[in-house]
Write a structure and sequence with these properties.
The protein is mainly alpha-helical and 214 residues long. It is 67% helix and 0% strand. The longest helix is centred in the last third of the chain and has 22 residues. The N terminus is likely disordered.
């Protein structure tokens, strides 16, 4: 069994996670309950203060059952980040009346605002970068890929440059949030620098690039 508080994997062996889409309905529902309970715990307190046994009780499962789905606390909270991102994506519909520039500004400001309101979620993204659990590292990479993909959707008019622009935007958001939340920099700077980068893209956002498919 894993040591939840240290975030280690039993015997150094990762749990091979079955994709949720391939799980029987009852297993997927149980896994979702665990993730939801863990997310609710993070809404209330910092990651370091969360006890994995309390998450299991809140989800209505035994601790051993939780570890059949997640190899460590870090693995579980990487899944929480992905679920949080997915829920935000479902809640945010695209507005056809907005220009591409307006859409990307709105998306970026929403992303920054979400972390500003819940800094403990951002801190988990930083903490998990040092995880030794391969399952946690894999899900964290998927989280970053999903975050960049959401931004790439908004700058799709840039054609083949959309992915690079999204990667730059995500890096700007992440590095400046780190400066604000860990080093006391003003949060307004996070918004300002992101907006300045979008200013540099404004002309190209107004004119679809080669290879863009509307």
């Amino acid at each position: 069994m894993a040591d939840a508080e240290a975030g280690t994997v039993a015997g150094g062996r990762p749990v091979a996670e079955t994709p949720v889409a391939e799980m029987p309905g009852w297993q997927a529902a149980r896994r979702n309950r665990i993730v939801e309970a863990a997310l609710e715990a993070l809404e209330r307190q910092e990651y370091e203060r969360i006890r994995i046994g309390e998450v299991a009780r809140a989800a209505g499962v035994a601790l051993g059952t939780l570890y059949r789905y997640f190899s460590s606390k870090e693995h579980l909270y990487a899944a929480v980040l992905q679920a949080w991102l997915d829920s935000g994506r479902r809640l945010r519909g695209r507005t056809a009346s907005r220009t591409p520039e307006e859409r990307v500004r709105a998306r970026v400001r929403a992303a920054i605002s979400a972390f500003e309101r819940r800094p403990q979620f951002f801190k988990v993204t930083v903490l998990l970068q040092g995880s030794t659990d391969p399952n946690a590292r894999l899900l964290l990479a998927e989280f970053a890929t999903s975050a960049r993909a959401m931004l790439a959707e908004e700058v799709a008019v840039l054609g083949p440059d959309a992915d690079d622009a999204a990667t730059m935007l995500w890096s700007i958001i992440h590095s400046n949030l780190t400066a604000a939340l860990y080093h006391g920099h003003d949060m307004s700077e996070v918004y300002r620098i992101a907006d300045r980068f979008i200013d540099l893209l404004a002309d190209r956002l107004a004119a679809p690039g080669p290879g863009h498919v509307p």
